């Protein structure tokens, strides 16, 4: 376990800005609006070869309402409890506030090491006089920094890591391409479908603020959990709203982040609120997942509120399949994030999808499948000429991606491409993952890099299944050769 360092402070002092600077990311949402960071943000990072986990806590107070204030305070206390070292950020521009004193008292009681940073100090001289008041907190050392410009941050980090226990920097940095590595999940869905409730359910701890109001989850957060020896990294994303109905800058940013957070994800959990039926917006969101090419699972949530009969379930899934044909490979599970019904199945389903998502097969096998498919059902002629398949190979995983070398790549009809993809899906099997297939131009003889025995077997099979048309064509070309031969003579 890496040591945990928590950033605390009242809203708008610059916690997210500092978090981003240290982790070199734009992961935390930064905005002028106080109280923007409602959920905790986590990131593994390191400084001078010392690894640690940085946590950005929600602001100590909320301007919104008492409900959030209580929730955020609870989150803060939990983060403080889990942290090994606390970093208390104060605002050098606005000066000391009564809340800072309350928080300082609270932190002192934890008896954990606390670093005191005064942020937004861009000019060391002009503000020196004003900073005097911060010493009234009874602190020996105050670090003056500017999170935005990076001033003083390096000095502070050097002192911070000097007091951290050693943790191997490489821990947690598993090979991403390795299919034993962590599985990155995103939870997506329109507002209020239960994304936060599900995140809480899967993590068994209230780390995410849940609220009845639509649009509660403003930012994407990242959490990690271990199940059956496998690490799952959970991405909880903001509700993706209909494009035309974006209300303000903040929400717009959240949508972008929601889309962003699907980028690196392996499996997207697409939540649908069954009590409201399948809406166009659900299908649009599913479309985003399909475009990203990640694995996908439909979670039909709030099942506790609807007709639970077998027939009802089948009808719902049938409707989903009709409306989201493009994600036919995505498993669908009815769940209730609220009661926990069937939620225990989710990690198992994710693992199944992921296994196929990372699947790699040898070139001989790919060629065999494509060759067999082509011989069972030949593509139609292209401008009177035969479409020839020379060679096929898997070129990538996540998702499994194949390339076929043919004489006329543009001539492959989309329905023929779909047929080949379906053959690959059935034979390998790759029925639970997206599969990509591209065509590249190649001329010349048939080439096989797969094993030659395989090639010969295919050739034998080809002879057996040679169609009448093939025989006629072969006979014609033999006669033509004979004629040519005679003419030459
Ligand atoms: N001048 C100046 N402004 C800063 C600095 N650091 C942060 N800010 C600004 O302060 C505002 C709040 O920054 P955030 O990082 O969102 O603050 P936060 O503490 O995470 O806020 P909450 O999410 O409300 O808890 C933003 O407008 C930042 O651009 C700094 O070093 N100098
Ligand atoms: N009955 C029932 N209610 C649920 C279920 N899952 C979530 N809810 C309720 O639905 C409401 C919204 O849940 P959230 O988890 O906040 O939804 P969200 O998708 O994160 O919402 P946004 O942050 O607005 O995008 C809350 O009142 C939850 O208690 C469920 O399975 N059954």
From TrEMBL:
Domain of life of the organism encoding this protein: Bacteria
Region of interest (Disordered), ranges: 459-489
GO-annotated molecular function: GTP binding; ribosome binding
Residues the entry annotates as binding GTP 1: 9-16, 56-60, 119-122
Domain EngA-type G: 3-168, 183-358
InterPro entries assigned: G_ENGA (IPR031166), GTP-bd (IPR006073), GTPase_Der (IPR016484), KH_dom-like (IPR032859), KH_dom-like_a/b (IPR015946), P-loop_NTPase (IPR027417), Small_GTP-bd (IPR005225)
Similarity annotation: Belongs to the TRAFAC class TrmE-Era-EngA-EngB-Septin-like GTPase superfamily. EngA (Der) GTPase family.
Binding residue positions for GTP 2: 189-196, 236-240, 301-304
CDD domains: EngA1, EngA2
Gene3D superfamilies noted in UniProt: 3.30.300.20, P-loop containing nucleotide triphosphate hydrolases
Keywords: GTP-binding, Nucleotide-binding, Repeat, Ribosome biogenesis
Keyword check for Kinase: no
Known function: GTPase that plays an essential role in the late steps of ribosome biogenesis.
Gene that specifies this protein: der
Protein name, UniProt field: GTPase Der
Assembly: Associates with the 50S ribosomal subunit.
GO annotation terms (biological process): ribosome biogenesis
Pfam families tied to this protein: KH_dom-like, MMR_HSR1
PROSITE patterns: G_ENGA
